[in-house]
Design brief:
It contains 14 helices and seven strands. The protein is of the alpha+beta class. The strands form two sheets. It has a four-stranded antiparallel β-sheet, with helices on one face. Helix 1 crosses helix 9 and helix 2 crosses helix 12. InterPro entries: PaaX-like_central (IPR048846), PaaX-like_N (IPR012906), PaaX_C (IPR013225), PaaX_trns_reg (IPR011965), WH-like_DNA-bd_sf (IPR036388).
Amino acid sequence: MAGPFDIEEIYPDGGDQPLRLPRRQVGNSSQGVTVTLLADYTVRTRAVLPSAALVALLSEMGVTPAGARTAISRLARRGVLEGSRQGRHSSYRLSRVAAANLSAGGNWIVASTTSATAWDGRWTIVAFSLPQDRSTQRRALRGQLRWLGYAPLYDGLWISPYELTPLARAQLDQLTDGAVTVFRGEQVPVAAAGHRAPIDAWDVAAIDRHYQDFLHRWTPLAPRVRAGQVDGAAAVRARTEVMDTFRRFPILDPRLPLELLPAGWLREPARELFAAVYDGLAAPAEQHVRAVVARFTDRATTGIRAHSTADLLAGVRDDADAKGR
């Protein structure tokens, strides 16, 4: 099973242009924090923010000014950000492709943890074989399978309790050149020693510990959020951190069937706690981001808009796209 920080890309690739979102590392990387910050407040509008404002906001989250500027520059080279200049002042916004990816990713994060899809007792098996000299392609395929909710039961044999969607099939075709076979069927129990059940492809005990750690970390904050006692930079930082932590759960626990899991599985309590913190801090966090940005620009800050988990589930889209422009 992959640990929560082994994920090469937490969001799907897509769009008409090359795009490389930052890798997820142990702790919060400066690029990851930058992407989360921009996604949380500008993914709908792709608002342009002064680089000085971004540096100030990132500094409040523990990123050094030098680290913030480096992160912004690297994200621009990756195609995640688009830059512009007015005199000596630079500004940045999410690229259209990045905004679309982040919107899809936000929907996936919430939808994948909202409820378990009814399971028909069958498994989808993806078997592939790639030569040793195609290691880059093999890593890309494994990363894509992880994102699709698959786990390796054996080397080269990955499984999921749910059907392979047409989009997923197309993505696998692009990565394998046909060196893949997909089956769907029920497990046939055998009494042989060393028998391995499909659910063993996931380290259920480790996933449970991650849920427990999440609940332990964020439960004490929830009453303060409900009482309106968290605002300013603290609200932005907490909202960014809770998203940066929670978004790993759909990879760790891709809606595994509850009938295969221990009683009292913590997926739902974790999702409810995430929503309580993330949604509860939306208004004060948005207010603070607007205030910081206003210090560095004469433009109106109406393009800065926090969204809720309900917005993510419904699908947060670029306003220009939504209006057909």
